[in-house]
Amino acid sequence: MKTELLGVPEDLLREHTAVSEPVAEAMARGARLRTGSTYALSVTGIAGPGGATEAIPVGAVFAGLAGPQTCRIRRAHFLGDRDRVRALASSSPWTCSAANSPGYDGCPLGPWGGCSGTRSTTTVSGPPSPPERPAPPVTER
């Protein structure tokens, strides 16, 4: 699916595995390119119970946000069972925080705090904190 729908190169998947920073970036860039959108978000991870390695444990998740100039990646490690990992990984405050740097390409999601650059790592054992302020409404073009 990552290759067919998002254009992730098979050699990238072989070299880095499907749950990795380079693949999260390729997914976000591919989604942006293939949909013609200004921004695209990707999430890839291991919810468990199987599939983990020593380097990438159950609960490891990468989120990528591709914009016109750059792509930001955030890695997190969520603790809990499969359902909890999936719920935390798909929560919009966490996934949108891939864009948390002020001035990130003028992203309409704006800075929500917690990510100071293009790379960030977080371990979460509970629900993510709510954003400090709501995102402005997104208008269609």
Model description:
It is a single chain. It is built from 5 helices and 4 strands, in the order H-H-H-E-E-E-H-H-E. The chain is of the alpha+beta class. It has a single domain, classed as CinA-like (Maf protein), CATH 3.90.950. A 4-stranded mixed β-sheet has the order 1-2-3-4. Strand 2 and strand 3 form a beta hairpin. The radius of gyration is 15 Å and the shape is globular.
Brief overview, please?
The protein is α+β, with helices and mostly antiparallel strands and 141 residues long.
Portion of residues in beta strands equals: 15-25%
Shape: globular
Strand order of the largest sheet: 1-2-3-4
Annotated CATH topology: Maf protein
Helix run count: 5
Mean pLDDT metric? 75
Q: What string, H for helix and E for strand, traces the elements in order?
A: HHHEEEHHE
Q: What CATH architecture would you give?
A: Alpha-Beta Complex
**How helical, in percent, are the residues?**
25-40%
Q: How many β-strand runs?
A: 4
How many discrete structural domains?
1
| CATH class designation | Alpha Beta
Secondary structure category = alpha+beta
Low-confidence stretches: 101-136
**Main pleated-sheet profile:** 4 strands, mixed
Question: How would you name the oligomeric state of the polypeptide chains in this document?
Answer: single chain
Full CATH superfamily name: CinA-like
Distance between the termini: 28 Å
